[in-house]
Amino acid sequence: MTVACPADRGPVLRARGLVKRFPPDATVLRGVDLDVAAGEWVAVMGPSGSGKSTLLHLVGGLETPTAGTVHLVGTAIEGLGESARARLRRRSVGVLFQAYNLVPHLSVTDNVALPLRLAGQSRRQSRARAAELLARLHLSELAGAMPGTLSGGQAQRVALARAIANDVPLLLADEPTGALDTDAARSVIQLLREVHAAGTAIVMVTHDHRVASVADRVMFMLDGEVVDERVLSGEEDDPSRTTFAHLVPLEAW
Ligand SMILES: Nc1ncnc2c1ncn2[C@@H]1O[C@H](COP(=O)(O)OP(=O)(O)O)[C@@H](O)[C@H]1O
Ligand SMILES: [Mg+2]
After folding, report:
1. Does 11 reside within a domain?
2. Which domain holds residue 75?
3. Domain for residue 144, yes or no?
4. Into how many domains does the chain fold?
5. Please, is 175 exposed, middle or buried when counting C-beta atoms within 10 Å of its C-beta (0-12, 13-18, 19+)?
6. How far is CA 236 from CA 195, 196, 242, in A?
7. Which of 111, 178, 180, 231 is the most buried (most CB within 10 A)?
8. Hey, which of 18, 28, 58 would you mutate to test ligand 1's pocket, going by the most ligand atoms within 8 Å of its Cβ?
């Protein structure tokens, strides 16, 4: 039997020539290409309004581009109808936003089980899988808690568990530490590192160069275009992990 390794599947994401216009006269993306290999971690930086969130929405199939194409795990999303697109999205991408968006009247376990329920698993099966995932992510002690009782860092770690519950190969994270203090941000990044180490590819928008420095590659956007890109080596003491800060827009400081 041949076991396919992630590298054999090609890129988890391949976006070409993405343009997004909002009538009457806003052009938010002006032709962006983005390839993400299986297991790769890409950080996206750039000033407010440069199109970062719009790019994530397009590659996650949450919005439709004005022009350009998106392939998720080898499948072109533009040809798909609404329900096929929803299915592809569910099995291939998880999304994590700055606001955790946990369902307030459901426990942590039921929040994490929700995407599994939506994917058709039974209540019992999905709760068992949610419990397993919470254990793997060191969150078991929160399993019975209600979202309103969690700190920001805890809520974001639970939101991360929920985002990857369907074993998705790609996680899209839009300023996942933007609302957190340093310690809480660190705990979220630590968990993202574990998720990445387990093989999930990540595209992460951030304003924080320390957060971006954990990625394999950093892409800089300005006015709807990619204006610079930097590959970071695996070495913790790689000078570019700290010196690319000069490219960080001033508003981040
Ligand atoms: N629905 C919309 N209609 C018109 N303009 C929009 C809409 N959504 C976003 N924009 C504009 O697109 C630009 C980029 O937005 P966004 O992708 O959210 O940027 P970023 O995430 O980099 O801050 C902003 O100038 C914003 O005002
Ligand atoms: Mg944004």
Report:
1. yes
2. 6-98+170-252
3. no
4. 1
5. buried
6. 19, 16, 10
7. 111
8. 28
- 142: tokens are 């929160």
The response to whether residue 51 sits with its C-beta less than 6 Å from ligand 1 reads yes
What residues contact 106, with CB distance under 8 A and at least 6 apart?
114, 147
Task: Point out the residues of the chain with pLDDT beneath 50.
Answer: 1-7, 243, 245-253
111: CA distance to ligand 2 center in Å? 24
Whether 140 is covered by a domain: the verdict is no
* Rounded-to-integer distance, Cα 88 and Cα 107, Å: 27
Are the C-beta atoms of 90 and 166 separated by less than 8 Å? Answer: yes
- For residues 148 and 160, what is the distance between their CA atoms, to the nearest angstrom? 17
Is 85 a pocket residue for ligand 1 (Cβ < 6 Å)? no
Q: At what angle do helices 123-136 and 152-164 cross, to 10 degrees?
A: 120
Closest atom of ligand 1 to 56 CA is 17
| pLDDT per residue as tens digits for the range 163-182 | 999 999 999 999 999 999 99
Within 10 angstroms of residue 149's Cβ, the number of other Cβ atoms is 10
Residue 124 lies in a domain: no
Q: What is the CATH number of the domain that holds 43?
A: 3.40.50.300
